[in-house]
Amino acid sequence: MEHRPIAVIGGGLGGLALARVLHVHGIDARVFDLEPSASARTQGGMLDIHEETGQAALREARLYEGFRAKVHPGGQALRVLDRYAHVVREEPDDGDGGRPEIDRGDLRDLLLSSLPEGAVRWNAKAVSCRALGDGRHEVVLADGTAFTTGLLIGADGAWSRVRPLLSARTPDYTGVSFVELDLHDADARHPDSARLIGGGMFFALGEEKGFLAHRETDGSLHVYVALRTPEAWLGTVDFTDAGAAKAALLRHFDGWDPALRRLVADADGPLVPRRIHALPVQHRWPRTPGVTLLGDAAHLMSPFAGEGANLALADGADLGRCLAGHPGDTEAALTAYEQILFPRSEETARQSAEGLETIFAPDAPQPLADMFARFDAAPR
Ligand SMILES: Cc1cc2nc3c(=O)[nH]c(=O)nc-3n(C[C@H](O)[C@H](O)[C@H](O)COP(=O)(O)OP(=O)(O)OC[C@H]3O[C@@H](n4cnc5c(N)ncnc54)[C@H](O)[C@@H]3O)c2cc1C
């Protein structure tokens, strides 16, 4: 049976950041991902990359300059509105670069192209993992092949197949569901909506629901319609029928300003439902030889602190640095890594949970506008 000294399950931002930092230090790792190829799925969405987490990781990976070249200019602008489309807070992109925005696909391509040929094995879905003793593990893939590894890293996201080796916890529904939609070629085809949303992040909130949106680099508008709703609600809507799905969504926004309702009515293409899950804020596990987790596999949280991708990058970079710093002593490296991981993810998961309450507050959007005002006033 094939043996890999280091096997990373999952080639998302976290797994790729780890592989890259290991490569920088001359350490080989193989990444296994279930996708058929690098380009199998469009990796849409804009990500704010924060200084102390995502940006620090990209420096560690020696990819900071490449990242800056792909930053979306103007993407740091912000608009916060109420349900009558009154603007309660507006910030231009002041160009200070504190939280630059990048397209998720561009960031992933940057990481992928920095790895040696063959570092990622596509079409490799892990279906089970078991401990063999002495810190070694066996992983079975969906095609029936298997391999053993001396160090197994679960970077396989929310529904990790590696996590059960360390923890019995699974993500819980947060009480919030999103429906994602796009308005293409917005300046030409949806000029009013383009002006409404502006160049960066956009929130229109009230009555424990709302619209979270941003402008993408291709000139489209990406909108998350966010609802506090029972877990089963999305299952009652037929998302294969866009007209019916729009009507079902719009019923939740009776009395909202027509400009906001138009974001749903005018959507191009399919509407995509997504339930928001999270692991417990204090999720951690006892040190277990030869295996650890990073990113969403370790600490899935709701997206309301905007840190999930940033933490995945930071975890990957920190784990890579710890392994490079403890040659021949994997357990010391994993201990050092988890000492960084656990307090950081706990603090951010708490902020995400608070962010959820801020966004879905009965008096929203005022608490969110106040939060951005506090950020603005804080010394840099
Ligand atoms: C709607 C929404 C908006 C968000 N917005 C932001 C934001 O603005 N800023 C931010 O920082 N974060 C944001 N996040 C969070 C962010 O997307 C995640 O935290 C981040 O992608 C986690 O990276 P990861 O590498 O840990 O996992 P993932 O990105 O989930 O990658 C996991 C990888 O593992 C692979 N995989 C899964 N299972 C297996 C298996 N069994 N075998 C092999 N491969 C497998 C997958 O194909 C995938 O490539 C958002 C999340 C959501 C849901």
Describe what is shown at a glance.
Monomer. The chain has helices spanning 13-24, 51-60, 64-68, 104-113, 186-189, 191-197, 242-250, 258-265, 296-299, 308-325, 330-359, 366-377, and strands spanning 2-9, 30-32, 46-48, 78-81, 87-91, 101-103, 120-121, 126-133, 136-141, 146-154, 172-183, 201-206, 209-215, 221-228, 268-278, 291-293.
Please explain how this structure is put together.
The mean pLDDT is 95. By secondary structure, this protein is of the alpha/beta class. It has 2 domains: 2-73 and 102-168 and 279-356, 3-Layer(bba) Sandwich (FAD/NAD(P)-binding domain); 172-278, D-Amino Acid Oxidase, Chain A, domain 2. Strands 1, 2, 7, 8, 9, 10 and 16 form a 7-stranded mixed beta sheet that branches. A 7-stranded mixed beta sheet has the order 5-4-12-13-14-11-15, with helices on both faces. The longest helix has 30 residues, at 330-359. It is 34% helix and 26% strand. The protein is built from 12 helices and 16 strands. Bound molecules: flavin-adenine dinucleotide. Flavin-adenine dinucleotide (FAD) is lined by residues 9-15, 32-35, 47-48, 125-126, 155-157, 161, 178, 224, 274, 295-297, 303, 306-310, 312.
